[in-house]
Amino acid sequence: MNIRKHIPNSITCLSLISGCIATVVALQGNLLWAAIWIIIAAVFDFLDGFAARLLKAYSPMGKELDSLSDMVSFGVAPGMIVFWMLSQASLPLGEIGRYIPYLAFVIPTFSGLRLAKFNIDERQTTSFIGMPVPAHALFWASAGYSLAPLSQANNVLFIVVTLVVALATSLLLVSEIPMFSLKIKSVGWKGNERRYILVVCAVLFVAFFGMLGIAGTILLYILLSIFNKRH
């Protein structure tokens, strides 16, 4: 038996497990660990592709497994973070507040649409069209943990802003906006300008703003992609 060809799929399974854990702890209200497990899932998601390329261990099963893993780790898990946030914010709103948290399911729904679109879209081989689901999940993991304490300051405003941003970012998943990939073919500056800018800014953002810096990095990623489209 060729063990080498199973290594990428094993790493993908670790990403899936991490997403399952993130989902559970998010529903328990532990948004810090939910964010950490989503970040761990993202690391495994990067490593499985790296391992597949390094070992030349591509397979149709691996492609399908990767999408299924992404759906849980970067679709369901961030959706449950927003679900818990809305649950806490809507508690004082009585009977109507019971139904508001379910609007968070817009995130896993559009994540599923994004993944299905990606699998059949032959244009997305070296770059992305629309926001990739790991970036979307990292945004909500970071913003959810950092901003959840604000849910009790002004419940209605918090709910409205959260839902508007959730819908906006979810629409970005299925948009036609070209977005660059972090995969590099060479270490030179030319052709990798946006990637290096993003990495340097990510370090600075996290150093100054902690977990919220990850959300800032994702917003910068979106802006750099849009700016490149227009120029």
From TrEMBL:
GO biological process assignments: phospholipid biosynthetic process
Intracellular or extracellular location(s): Endomembrane system; Membrane
Coiled-coil parts of chain: none
Alphabetized GO MF terms: CDP-diacylglycerol-serine O-phosphatidyltransferase activity
InterPro entries, per the entry: CDP-diaglyc--ser_O-PTrfase, CDP-OH_P_trans, CDP-OH_PTrfase_TM_dom, CDP_ALCOHOL_P_TRANSF_CS
Keywords for the protein's UniProt record, in alphabetical order: Lipid biosynthesis, Lipid metabolism, Membrane, Phospholipid biosynthesis, Phospholipid metabolism, Transferase, Transmembrane, Transmembrane helix
Annotated protein name in UniProt: CDP-diacylglycerol--serine O-phosphatidyltransferase
Enzyme class: transferase
Transmembrane segments: 32-55, 67-87, 99-116, 128-150, 156-175, 196-224
Chemical reaction(s) catalysed: a CDP-1,2-diacyl-sn-glycerol + L-serine = a 1,2-diacyl-sn-glycero-3-phospho-L-serine + CMP + H(+)
Family statement: Belongs to the CDP-alcohol phosphatidyltransferase class-I family.
The protein's Enzyme Commission number: 2.7.8.8
A GO-annotated cellular component: membrane
